[in-house]
Amino acid sequence: MTRSITPITAAGKSGDNGPRTEEKAGPEHGLFVLRGREGRGLISLACDALGETFNLAHELHARLYAKDPADDRDLLQQMGEALACLETAHHYLLMLSSVLEERCPPDPDPDPGVDPWSVDPAF
Fold first, then answer.
1. What is the pLDDT along the chain (123 residues), one digit of tens a residue?
2. How many domains does the chain have?
3. Interatomic CA distance for residues 47 and 89, integer angstroms
């Protein structure tokens, strides 16, 4: 039996299947590019820190449910390390939020005389 897989591509304007060039290109150099790299690095570090937190917590869980549980001092040390990894992930995410806020243009204030909390909801 022969199987063939037909790739499905999205059609562009007038059925054109070529690359899309409508996206706005950002600058190639400068602070914007540097902040983009920093943001990608920070989210990677945050994911790594959360992964280590998970691994330590999973190991802690296994040690607590073992037939012969580990010494409580060892468990406390491991729990402290898991919490330190979690705090580190939190720190990286806070740093990432400041990078993203710096890259976003500020929202224009439509009417400085109106309190945004006094406006009725739109729904």
1. 555 666 665 555 555 555 555 556 667 888 888 999 999 999 999 999 999 999 999 999 999 999 997 899 999 999 999 999 999 999 999 999 999 988 877 666 666 676 766 766 665
2. 1
3. 7
